[in-house]
Specification:
Strand order of the largest sheet: 4-3-7-8-1-2-6-5
Structural class: alpha+beta
Mean pLDDT: 91
Oligomer: single chain
Order of helices and strands: HHEEEEEEEEHHHHHHHHHH
């Protein structure tokens, strides 16, 4: 028995030594790979060929599938602003007026746009302006340039660089050298496919600006003025939200429409109960609804764009992206959907409104076809439509 114990002790010790060696090798490889990660954009004064190819495919997806994603969306020819650490670039708007306006303000930021010399995008001139610093940019959302609404977001390269930098700054110093940033970025962004759908997310914000300018301004004011008073982190609120978000996720996983209706009805009841028990003020309730309309719908469009691109017969991505190793022609949609649905129940802080709004939109696709025609009606919110869908099923 003693000899057997010694033998197993050696086996365990040998196994542990192997694990330690494997982890050491992995840490060494990761540290070496991290040194190769870019810290600045390779080309800063113009859009490089990869960024142009990505933008062309994003516009192609919008034009080909936009109306199937959201009725009437494809008819809106929306300009796009891309930015890196030094420049903002504007496409789709000839002879643009100076600067940009952030919603809901009226102050013009930035300066004059200049034509990018000796370069073009899809055969037309595009424009740029130098940024005072990497922190002063149009941000990932929508901006107005004169009277036109434009989608705005960082280039894919700068997005990855900035996100990796943020992870380094928030991580314990002992992990900064060996953390697998490249793997984390692939998970968070979703490669070129995920980025292309993020363009649709921001482009839909621009569409919200075109179709409902007062509503988008009100939602942004709620984020700035009301949301800071929201009970994020309060134990009772967080427990109730976990239940609510869990019910939303379960609705999306229901195998039948009737099962989805039952769970959606439980979600509506749970939401009302949470607000009543916590005595949530009317302006905070309104903030929830507005943020779900603004960010939840855009998150829904992001995922719906991926789904349509993956599942629409006859849709073909542009050949310019064939040389992009991180572009998978939208083949990873089901994995991404599973990942996003899995995150619903654990969404925190204001991110929960992205997911709760997205989930309600997906539920409405199943329970109330045609709901999108009412989504921009004043004082009609996603939860109202869900409640109507389950009432209709019960009557």
């Amino acid at each position: 028995m003693a000899r057997k114990s010694v033998r197993w002790g050696r086996v365990v010790a040998g196994g542990l030594a192997g694990i330690v060696l494997s982890l050491s090798v992995l840490a060494g490889w990761t540290a070496l790979d991290n040194r190769r990660l870019p810290r600045h954009s390779r080309v800063v004064d113009r859009l490089d060929e990869r960024e142009k190819a990505l933008l062309s495919e994003a516009l192609h997806l919008h034009r080909a599938l936009g109306d199937s994603i959201w009725p009437g969306w494809a008819r809106e020819d929306l300009p796009v602003v891309l930015y890196n650490e030094r420049y903002a670039f504007l496409t789709g708007l000839p002879d643009p007026p100076a600067g940009w306006i952030k919603v809901p303000g009226v102050r013009v930021r930035g300066g004059p746009w200049e034509r990018v010399p000796d370069d073009s995008f899809e055969g037309a001139a595009y424009y740029r302006q130098a940024l005072p610093s990497p922190a002063e940019n149009p941000e990932a959302f929508t901006v107005r340039i004169g009277d036109r609404w434009a989608a705005s977001l960082p280039t894919l390269e700068w997005f990855g660089i900035r996100l990796a930098g943020r992870m380094r700054s928030e991580m314990p110093s002992v992990l900064t050298a060996v953390f697998p940033y490249r793997l984390a970025l692939r998970f968070l962004i979703g490669g070129s496919d995920g980025y292309l759908c993020m363009v649709q997310h921001e482009a839909f914000h621009a569409y919200q600006g075109v179709a409902a300018p007062l509503r988008i301004a009100s939602a942004e004011r709620a984020a700035a003025e009301v949301e800071p008073g929201y009970p994020f982190g309060q134990a009772a609120s967080e427990r109730a939200w976990r239940r609510e978000l869990g019910l939303l996720a379960s609705c999306l996983q229901a195998s039948t429409r009737e099962e989805a209706r039952v769970r959606a009805r439980l979600f509506i009841a749970s939401r009302r109960d949470r607000r009543n028990r916590l005595g949530l003020a009317a302006e905070l309730v309104g903030c929830e609804c507005q943020r779900e309309w603004l960010e939840g719908l855009a998150k829904y469009v992001e995922l719906e764009s991926w789904r349509r691109a993956a599942q629409t017969p006859g849709y073909r991505p542009l050949t310019a992206l064939k040389s992009d190793p991180s572009f998978k022609a939208y083949a990873g949609f089901r994995r991404r959907l599973s990942q996003e649905v899995g995150q619903i129940a654990w969404a925190k802080d204001d991110t929960r409104f992205y997911y709760s709004g997205m989930a309600q939109a997906m539920i409405l696709d199943r329970l109330m076809p045609g709901w999108k025609s009412r989504a921009f009606v004043q004082d009609v919110w996603l939860e109202d439509l869900v409640a109507e869908a389950v009432r209709g099923a019960a009557s």
